Amino acid sequence: MRCEGLWCDQGEWEIFEALGLHVQIPVVFAPDWQARIRVLEKVERQRMAVVEKLGPEMAARVFELADLLKGHPHGDFAVGYLMRKFNE
Length: 88
Prior knowledge:
Largest sheet: none
Distance between the termini: 63 Å
Number of helices: 5
């Protein structure tokens, strides 16, 4: 087994191979790739928190509304309205 100069704990190289990442070792450990992965993980944690707090049905509706508003030229106005409703 080869780790391309990396120290692999037991079973880690096999995981790299199974995921097809063993041929991308320099990319996987590059700082910019790691930063992108951290952002994606943060987004996923936030989504999971919304699902946990609201339940899957309400969370799906919130995600759908967020996507609709993000694509609308006045979506920020609608978000402001929603925020004001919670501050009343």
